[in-house]
């Protein structure tokens, strides 16, 4: 692996991020190394006359028992640290239909990681890509909404579309996935969002918009990376808006699974 990284460095390429299989192999190597370390410590203790090598300890073992418990505790700690190191690896980025999603972004000066990304299909037509950024991983809609800190949904258009039509589709998606009472509390925010898309008139292929949720502040819509329209302060709005993609009746079930990190980000043109 080191040799491969050196070759990539000579070629001017960044080392390839470790995949799941390589990460598992690393844990296996760490566990093997830990086992050898435990054996070496056991033999060292035996050489000092405190333990009989690899023999079962009886009640009279005394300090030998305490030494062995210390060794085992150290080994367990090493294994836990090894597992935590693998789990702490940053989520990989994604590339869909030529659109790249970075592994992480910063929102309100706080780091977020890519939870999942996918393509929105309408029949067999690719409409846009979407990526969800959170402070911690989440694989259900409830967990997404419960994650602490800011959240971001980033959308990049894969074809030209009338912005007003997109706004109407979003409104319909919110109605389809929210109770009447909840939707009624988000109407003011829905109107503000509709005004943003009406002012834009058209979203062309390659253009983007983001929806940032800032706890205690509200929801900010950005078009092509710049804040657009008024800040939407109703807390119910963001929940209702996320229902478009993550609710019980999502616009695209395959995209929902991808945003929740449950499915590959490959194309799956089976939606309406």
Portion in helices: 40-55%
Shape descriptor: globular
Number of continuous helical runs: 9
* H-E order: HHHEEEEEHEEHHHEEEEHH
Alpha carbon gyration radius = 26 Å
Mean pLDDT: 76
Approximate strand percentage = 15-25%
Distance between the termini: 45 Å
Biggest sheet strand order reads: 3-4-5-6-9-10-11
Q: Largest sheet at a glance?
A: 7 strands, antiparallel
Report the count of strand segments. Answer: 11
Overview of the structural elements:
The chain is α+β, with helices and mostly antiparallel strands and 272 residues long. Helices cover 45% and strands 24% of the residues. The chain has helices at 2-10, 20-47, 63-87, 141-146, 163-177, 180-185, 187-200, 235-246, 253-259; strands at residues 94-96, 99-101, 104-107, 110-122, 125-134, 151-157, 161-162, 202-203, 208-214, 218-223, 226-232. Strands 3-4-5-6-9-10-11 form a 7-stranded antiparallel sheet. Strands 1-2 form a two-stranded antiparallel sheet. The chain has a two-stranded antiparallel sheet with strand order 7-8. Strand 4 (110-122) and strand 5 (125-134) form a beta hairpin. Helix 5 runs antiparallel to helix 7. The two termini are 45 Å apart.
């Amino acid at each position: 692996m080191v040799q491969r990284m050196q070759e990539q460095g000579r070629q001017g390429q960044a080392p390839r991020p470790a995949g799941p299989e390589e990460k598992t192999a690393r844990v296996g190597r760490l566990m093997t190394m830990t086992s050898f370390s435990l054996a070496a410590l056991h033999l060292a203790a035996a050489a000092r006359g405190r333990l009989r090598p690899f023999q079962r300890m009886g009640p009279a073992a005394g300090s030998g028992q305490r030494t062995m418990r210390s060794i085992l505790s150290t080994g367990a700690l090493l294994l836990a640290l090894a597992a935590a190191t693998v789990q702490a690896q940053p989520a990989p980025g994604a590339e869909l239909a030529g659109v790249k999603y970075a592994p992480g972004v910063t929102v309100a000066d706080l780091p977020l990681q890519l939870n999942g990304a996918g393509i929105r299909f309408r029949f067999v037509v690719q409409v846009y890509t979407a990526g969800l950024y959170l402070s911690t991983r989440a694989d259900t809609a409830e967990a997404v909404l419960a994650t602490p800190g800011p959240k971001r949904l980033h959308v990049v258009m894969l074809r030209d579309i009338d912005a007003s039509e997109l706004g109407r589709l979003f409104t319909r998606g919110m109605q389809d996935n929210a109770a009447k009472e909840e939707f009624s509390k988000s109407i003011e925010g829905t109107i503000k969002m509709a005004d943003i898309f009406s002012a834009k008139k058209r979203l062309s292929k390659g253009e983007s918009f983001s929806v940032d949720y800032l706890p205690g502040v509200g929801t900010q819509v950005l078009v092509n990376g710049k804040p657009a329209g008024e800040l939407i302060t109703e807390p119910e709005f963001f929940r209702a808006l996320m229902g478009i993609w993550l609710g019980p009746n999502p616009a695209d079930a395959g995209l929902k699974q991808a945003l929740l990190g449950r499915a590959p980000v490959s194309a799956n043109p089976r939606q309406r």
